[in-house]
Write a structure and sequence with these properties.
- Residues 457-539 form the PTS EIIB type-1 domain.
- It is a multi-pass membrane protein.
- One of its GO terms (cellular component) is plasma membrane.
- Its EC number is 2.7.1.69.
- InterPro entries: Dup_hybrid_motif, Glu_permease_IIB, PTrfase_EIIB_Cys, PTS_EIIA_1_perm, PTS_EIIC, PTS_EIIC_1, PTS_Glucose_EIICBA, PTS_IIB_1.
- This protein is of the alpha+beta class.
- The protein folds into 4 domains: 16-123 and 133-222, no CATH class; 253-418, no CATH class; 439-547, Glucose permease domain IIB (Gyrase A, domain 2, 2-Layer Sandwich); 561-707, Glucose Permease (Domain IIA), CATH 2.70.70.10.
- The protein is 52% helix and 13% strand.
- It has 25 helices and 20 strands.
- An 8-stranded antiparallel β-sheet has the order 15-11-12-13-17-9-8-19, with no helix packed on it.
- A hairpin with a 2-residue loop joins strand 1 and strand 2 (141-144).
- The longest helix has 54 residues, at 180-233.
- The two termini are 56 Å apart.
């Protein structure tokens, strides 16, 4: 058990490390494309005399290019500042500043040691810093060439010091040294022996890196295959950063990294007819993006073809945007994590095929910077180099399209043979969707608890992770549709899109008060959420399974009218003074400013939910499949049931006009709340033919308010 816990802890820390490294990496796509565009715009072979040196056009793009080299020229400093943002447990901005100062001290200490005793450490410190010397200039400091690896290591040390010493209590008369100053002081002291250690160790590490580089450069196709396979197969764990960062942005196979080297020599490659593979063999390690451009469209097409005929149109609306994003930009998470979520074997096959595609293209002579999507292909490769390398690129497209077909047939065979529940092959009562990394991680957690196929438990896990984890939760309550959470640190709460991708209708943030709009299933989600916080989710799972009550089939094509559920003035949902309802997060509908004090059933159906304790909300499932929520008043959950009386029970079959909940308007107003009654059709997206009556006075159980 302890070994398992330690293993999980190590994996969590490695994933956290990978996530922290991603903070600066997100800048590389923009700056890389900008450099490439600048170089293309200065190419006289493409643009003629307008791009000659000395023209206004040339001068403009020269300035742009120099600015675009920023992140590549200052990469170690970038990592030293950005990585701590992902590691700091508090005050990440201050941690970034502290890390920068500590990293600078580290380099100054190394410079001092090498100035005094460079020959003792086997370093010729008198030579100018540059490629092959083992020395580099960092912020005008001549120091050991450790690239981003050294910066990342020092950034991790700085983050650890920050997390352990930031809140250290010191005497009042030394108060000026509290917080960041104390962290930097500790870091200053730690960096002296650290710098001395690196002077001893790093020259040997550099030699080992050179040997590793030599091995990879001489391993040819096998090396390219192993690199691409490792990069893809480690992505689910977030450890792929350890593979591609040293290659693409570090010194693993060429000085400065593949991307910077390729861009620096782009004009040389563009004016030579020699084989790309011969001119830049290291570029074979930047072909991992080819599976994004050519492979995943085949996999997506296979999922579409394997979908049930009646679901293909909906599946297409899911797959087309995700596929276009993967092909153009290289962002593959929705498709790849859907493989992982539904059938890990599909992802393993994807990794094998992606590696084989890269190795095949390299075998036929392709090299370059193809780590992203189609935009990278055009801007950094095809446009500037097509004149002399048209044959190579045509071959690339032909081989790529062949692999599109291979992906299609292999995925189609596996999906049908193993009956994988890819989008469009799910049961009729299950939602078809693509999955995110957060949902995949939640599923892995639920698998340990025997709840991998429980959608409400998965939602609870994803919501908990997106809210910053158990340590960030101070208080949890819920109303009829919302999970209300008070968090310790609002900055740790993920964006609304992270919640909606996991099945929430929306997110409302008001300082430390967070509302996750869950819908009518919020009581069950809340139960799992609480259980996750307490660690007794298995007990909740047993109770939920015992309480399960499958619904009877409904006639989804049944047309029907909903009559007023109370007397008063009918208003449109958009006029309700509550963002959750007015923005239709819970679905479209209407509201009534009541003149009576009884809510009745607007049509025949079944009571699916009653807000126990407060009785301010009730859910119904109508005979045509429409699911409605009737919510009495705004924020009336806080009344704790005072002024409300329930006249039905969950599971009851009701007829139009049957009394459901009585309420006291004066009690609601005395408590400081509005008594507006909202009716939301929570699955209104399934009823595009739904029509609402015009605003005006309505009479209970007589005036039609909605028709299907």
């Amino acid at each position: 058990m302890n070994m398992s816990i330690k293993k999980d802890r190590v994996m969590q820390e490695l994933q956290r490390f990978g996530g922290a490294m991603y903070t600066p990496v997100i800048l590389f796509a923009f700056f890389g494309l900008t450099v490439a565009i600048s170089i293309v715009c200065k190419n006289t072979m493409l643009l003629g005399s307008i791009a000659d040196k000395g023209t206004v056009w040339y001068d403009f793009w020269f300035v742009v290019e120099q600015g675009a080299w920023t992140v590549f020229a200052q990469m170690p400093i970038l990592f030293a500042i950005a990585v701590p943002i992902g590691f700091a447990k508090k005050e990440p901005a201050r941690c970034a500043m502290e890390s920068f100062v500590i990293y600078m001290c580290f380099n100054y200490f190394i410079s001092a040691f090498l100035t005094l005793h460079g020959s003792f450490f086997g370093v010729d410190y008198s030579q100018a810093a540059g490629a092959g010397t083992g020395l580099a200039m960092i912020a005008n400091i001549k120091t050991l060439d450790m690239g981003m690896l050294g910066a990342i290591f020092i950034a991790c040390c700085s983050s650890w010091i920050h997390n352990h010493f930031y809140d250290t209590e010191i005497p009042d008369w030394l108060g000026i040294f509290k917080g960041p100053a104390f962290v930097v002081a500790v870091g200053f002291a730690v960096m002296i022996p650290m710098a001395l250690l690196f002077c001893f160790v790093w020259p040997a590490v550099q030699h080992a890196i050179e040997q590793f580089q030599f091995f990879l450069k001489t391993s040819g196709i096998i090396g390219v295959w192993c690199y691409t396979f490792s990069e893809r197969i480690l992505l689910p764990a977030g450890l792929h950063h350890f593979i591609y960062l040293p290659f693409i942005f570090g010194p693993a196979v060429c000085d400065g990294g593949i991307q910077a080297y390729w861009l620096q020599h782009l004009n040389d490659f563009a004016t030579s007819a020699h084989s790309l593979k011969e001119m830049f063999p290291e570029g074979g390690f930047a072909l991992h993006g080819m599976s994004k451009v050519f492979g995943l469209p085949g996999a997506a097409l296979a999922m579409y073809v394997c979908a049930k005929p009646e679901k293909r149109k909906k599946v297409a609306t899911l797959l087309i945007p995700a596929t276009i994003t993967a092909v153009l930009c290289g962002i593959t998470e929705p498709l790849e994590f859907t493989f992982l979520f539904v059938a890990p074997l599909l992802y393993a096959v994807h990794a094998v095929l992606a590696a084989t595609l890269s190795a095949t293209l390299y075998f036929f002579g392709l090299s370059g910077n193809f780590g992203g999507g189609l935009i990278d292909c055009f801007v950094q490769n095809w446009i500037p180099l097509f004149k002399y390398h048209a044959g190579t690129y045509i071959m690339q497209i032909i081989v790529g399209l062949c692999f599109t077909g291979i992906y299609f047939f292999v995925f189609r065979y596996l999906i049908l043979k193993n009956d994988y529940k890819t989008p469009g092959r799910t049961d009729d009562d299950e939602e078809d969707k693509l999955f995110s990394k957060a949902e995949y991680k939640a599923k892995k957690e639920m698998e340990k608890k025997g709840l991998a196929n429980n959608p409400e438990a998965l939602k609870a896990q994803v919501f908990l992770d997106n809210l910053g984890g158990p340590s960030n939760i101070k208080e949890v309550t819920n109303c009829a549709t919302r999970l209300r959470v008070t968090v310790a640190d609002p900055d740790k709460v993920a964006s609304a899109s992270k919640f909606t991708k996991a099945g929430a209708f929306g997110l409302v943030k008001n300082g430390h008060a967070i509302q996750v709009i869950v819908g009518l299933s919020v009581p069950n989600v809340r139960s799992y959420f609480d259980a996750l916080l307490k660690g007794d989710i298995a007990d909740v799972a047993v109770e939920a399974k015992a309480a399960a009550n499958p619904s009877e089939p409904v006639k989804t094509d049944l047309s029907m009218k909903l009559k007023a559920f109370a007397s008063g003035k009918l208003i449109d949902m958009t006029e309700v003074p509550d963002d959750v309802f007015s923005q239709k997060m819970m679905g479209d509908g209407v509201a009534i400013e009541p003149t009576t004090e009884m809510v009745v059933a607007p049509a025949d159906g079944e009571v699916t939910m009653i807000m126990e304790g407060s009785y301010h909300a009730i859910g119904l499932r109508l005979d045509n499949g429409a699911e409605i929520l009737i919510h009495i008043g705004l924020d009336t959950v806080k009344m704790g049931g005072k002024g409300f009386r329930c006249l039905t029970k969950q599971g009851a079959k009701v007829k139009a006009g049957d009394e459901l909940i009585g309420f006291n308007r004066e009690a609601i107003k005395a408590a400081g709340y509005k008594d507006t009654i909202i009716l939301a059709v929570t699955n209104s997206a399934d009823y595009p033919q739904m029509k609402k009556a015009a605003d005006g006075d309505v009479k209970v159980n007589e005036t039609p308010i909605i028709s299907f």
